[in-house]
Amino acid sequence: MKKKSFRRPRSVGEFRKDKESKQAADKEGQQKERPVLTRDLAANTATLKARIGSSNDVVFREFVLPLPEPLRAIIVFVDGLSSRDTINDYILQSLTTFDGEAADWAQDRRNLAQKLMDHVLNINEVMLQTDLEQIITAILSGETALLLEGEDGALICNTRGWEHRGIEEPESEVAVRGPRVGFNELLRSNTAQVRRWIRDPDLRVKSMEIGVRSQTDIALVYLESVANPELVKEVVQRLARIDLDGVIESAYLQEYIEDRPYSLFPTIQTTERVDRVVGAVLEGKVGILVDNTPFALIAPVTFWELYYAAEDYYHRWPLTILIRMIRLISFFFSLYLPAIFIALAVHNPELIPFILTIKVAGTREGTPFPVVLETLFMEIAIEILREASVRLPGPFGQTIGIVGGFILGDTAVRAGLISPIMTIVVALTAICSFVSPSFGVAITMRILRFPLIIIAQIGGLYGLSIATIFLLINLAGIRSFGVPFLSPLVPLNLSDLKDSFFVAPRWTMIKRPLAYEPIDQRRAGSKANNWWEAAFNPPQRRPKGGKKKR
Amino acid sequence: MRRPVKRSQKKKRFFLLMLAVLLLTAPGCWRGRELNARSFVTAVAFDLPTEEGADPDEFLLSIQVPIPAKMAGEGGDQGGDGKPFVVYGTTTKMVTTGIRQLQRQLDRELFFGHTHLILFNVEVAKAIGVDRLLDYFKRDYRVQRRARIAVIDGEAREILKLEPPISQTPAAYIENLLSGQSASGINYISDFGRFLVEQGDVGFDPVLPRVSKGKETALTGGGAVIKNGKFVGWLENNETRALNILLNQKIVSIYEVKCPLHPQEEIVVRTTGFGSRYRLNNQNGRTVMQIRVGGQFETVEFTDQHGPLATIQDDLEKTVSAAVRAEIEQVIQKAQELGADILGVGRRLQALKHDLWQAMDWEREFPAFPIEVEVDMEWTMTVRRFGG
Amino acid sequence: MKQEKRSLDARQVTLVVLGFGIGGGILTLPSLAAKVFGASGWLIVLVLGLFYTGGAWIAGRLAERFPEETIIEYSPRLLGKYLGLLFNLIFITSFLLVIPIEIRILQELVNISLLPDAPIWFVSGSFLLAIAYGASRQIDQIAQVNELLIEIAIIVGLFVVLLAMQHFEPLHLLPFFSKDLIHPDKVNELVGMAFSFASFPVISMVVPYLRNPRQTTPAVVKGNIFITLVYTIFTLIVLGVFGYQETTKLSWVALELAKSINIEAVILERLDLVLIVSWISALYTTALLAGFVVSASVKRMFKLKKHAYVIWALVPLVYYLSTIFTNYFVWTRWSVYVAALFVVISVFFYPLLYLLSLRKGNGHA
User: Fold this and answer.
1) ipTM of the complex
2) What span, in angstroms and rounded, lies between the C-alpha atoms of C244 and B350?
3) CATH code where residue B360 lies
4) C132: nearest CA in chain A?
5) Rounded Cα–Cα distance for residues A428 and A363 (Å)
6) Which residues in chain C touch residue B193, judged by CB atoms under 8 angstroms apart?
7) Whole domain around residue B369: which residue ranges?
8) Would you tell me which of A179, A304, B46, B95 could form a disulfide with B136, CB atoms 3.0–4.6 Å apart?
9) What is the arithmetic mean of pLDDT over A19-41?
10) CA closest to B144 among chain A residues
11) In this complex, do C171 and B351 lie within 8 Å of one another by their Cβ atoms?
């Protein structure tokens, strides 16, 4: 017999056997004793107290209903989750001050809960619940349970109300132009925000609860007449499969439902801005809002969309083209600049213009390290600086940036430890990597830069070509919920290209992105059949003859 | 049962780690080198060997290598004592062997990827031949096809040692001289690539620019005719200018002609917009090459007091045409004397009248081949001032 | 066997034909054309291209008759068991041999310009790994990668070639049709040119993945016409810049063309290295598609589960073959052999198969 010790790692087989036996025991246990509510108030109260009463913030308030024969009742709520005002004004007030003598429904004691619901309780949302687990979940979600003597169920009243942040502009996605609203941690408030933009009855808000212990509310937001039903079904299926202890942030969900769990590239977009989710929903995508976090998920997404910012859509198209070009260039630089420089300097200096070559060689006289080591040291130093400046509060963070970046770098150059050219290259790369609007992709580029630097040292431009080919094969194989990751470039979709690096004016975008296969391909409101027709008819034309309409 | 990592596995992992570290810290793999581990050769020169009793096949190979530290950092305050470059030389029979010999003196690998200038002494070009000496550079992938080649009537090595008036390497200085920037038309603009193409052309003999050493500087102007890879003769400045006109190089040049009204006075005209058209005609059973040159000029300077006048237009045009024509005929005569077809007559024959070409032996036929020239210059008036 | 999804559209098929066709063959094409046809070598390229376009049409129509199957499966039915097996073997072998030749061309290219002295195991090995990695993927992934890479290669290539027009000399293209320059007896060179043209057999393996199989023929014909155009323009410009004599002497024509470009642009002084990087992608697409065809064919012939197994199993063999080609002369000779195989397939077998399929009635409509 093998001795069990907690330090010894167990084999998969053993693990499985343990889990199965535990599950069987659970099932048995559940079937044996499921606590149930009876008609005895005292017994119910005792059951509830046994389950949740040990915490001091669960309040049990007993009172008497003013019926012809006084009836005992008790409300149970969690202090802090439930709004005291609502409970006071709408539950206790109504239940303790109604005229029970005069009411003729009060004479008969049967269905008392229903009658109270119909005639007395003036709260907005009430329902009758008999399952004890559901009642407990409701109490723990901030609702109030009303138990009556002689009823084997409870009335669940919606009294949710707790401290929360207001609507603020998200700090992580600041826009020069555009609405300054972001999500907050309240799911209901978030879904309400989306509804404010889209007043279409086809907008569906579908709720789910995920997380065994956290029972976090999730809401899927999509347009039923636009989003591909296969897509919606897929998202729902993937979410339903999640077996998790607690959902703290939407990132937990993201990791469970994304297509390629091991890939460096994210296939689901996260955003804090409401307008981005609204735009996505209008294009036929599905938005996933998660309670307790302002970060919403958008599925599916293509690689290029990870580089779009919300305010691209709020500027006129020439500016947007320029900005997107700049982002594209900086994406390329942030990935390849140090690697190309090393490849050229070490293996192919004939490609570098002569004066630059001589200058670089001249300033590198006497530096102790080869180019590649210098680059790696500096890249690592910048990563450390970045991390440090995030941790330090307020003004300290900026100081570290100045102290670390400028002084350290300058001094090191003057001391002859590193060459100024490499400093410029590395600094430019770092700046370029900040241009990405999506944090997930920025991290990917930062990670990918290091192997590329090493490959450039070993294999020069050839190694970089092969590495790029590997990268491309990987990217081409990723599908985000069935949509090829590199659309609309490959497979080429001319209609979708109007909203990629080349941006066309808004009135030519008469179709939704076809890559997501929406049911309703045309955006409402355009009279042209094709986008090039629309391009010839920009909106400000005056109608022929006739004055301008007011 | 947990498997402990065996010692051999630990050794393997350690070895792989060390290999990875070594790969990183090694200054480069295969032939990759740090920038400072290379010495860039900016110019190459071929001369006659200075030693007594040297083999007639041998030549003196010199290279110019810039010193990066001096060229890069302090631009303004040059110590004055050090030139920013060094010149090395060795006597050898084959270029590759010579490079190996030179490498022995240097701790950094010689790198020809930035070679901008290849200079030949005229004696070496005559005896050994330009084509034979360029063979190594043709096959080395790194050498740029835009490197400039020139023939020097003097010591090519001296040119390498020149310190140019503005602080840069002599290579850059001469390269700028040899490029079209002076635009006076007396330079033959060519580079390594163009030379190779012209060399490989059937019925065409290439020309290389000529450089001579002045007191402190280098002078460009003129050309060196290369036939079968070897130097056969010089072209003077005006002959080169005429050749440029014939080859349709866009040049701008000046001519001094006699004033039609007053033969003692002179007018300087500025000629532009040359175009040459070639036609092969049959005259009395013989094939004749007729060249029609057209161009425009404007009057720039008068020794006279009268300035541009409408009355002298016809005569002036004739005079200028005659001047241009005289030069062109001079260069044609020179070419036929040297037996080198620098005009491309043979190439046209081969292309347009291929049967005739096959029947001819161009080597013997060219010196006697009839070539007629007609020049027609127009006075396009961009006159700024009448009168003197 | 799971039915694989139809995921390609007509445009991707055209690009597949292009990707396979434009590769290492473009290297030797102008010099071979100059040897055979002198100064008007581009004319023979054009003629050959049109001839192969006709062949492409036949291949497309043949493939459309059997939209559910690849040629490996219906050739034994049409030709009989033994002849069909022979054809399959020739088909697979010719595609298989393309890969080591492309690898060898890449090795030499990289050794000349990018990484002198880099050992074979590094360059060829990493390239072969990339090929195997790519060819083991599904066809839609392969088609996407091919689309990207071949577009880069063609755009950069055409850009460089058009820039080279600055040295274009129309005189070099004359004499047009002179008898002493035309050597139709140089069969070796003629067959060698076919190495660059035989791109349409790819279509026979790709038809089951097309969304709309009816679009096969126009797609293939379009691809072949484009290849013909590209080759003709390229040969024309090479002949115009260098003249036919120099062209026969040059071994790496495209590189010399790029090297001769004079741009006073400071950054891109050396366009030939830019061309090389784009050429690596062209070589890669050719080898990738050849690898896919081989592995898909073997998989279908032996009814294996995944074609990835085949290509990874073939890696050592391909590596060994690529080391056999020791120098320029050896691999050009082998490219003539491979070209001969392709000629046999395209000129002899395809029309035969087509006629037989017409006679035996529709396969699957």
Assistant:
1) 0.90
2) 12
3) 3.30.300.210
4) A470
5) 18
6) 259-260, 262
7) 237-388
8) B95
9) 76
10) A350
11) yes
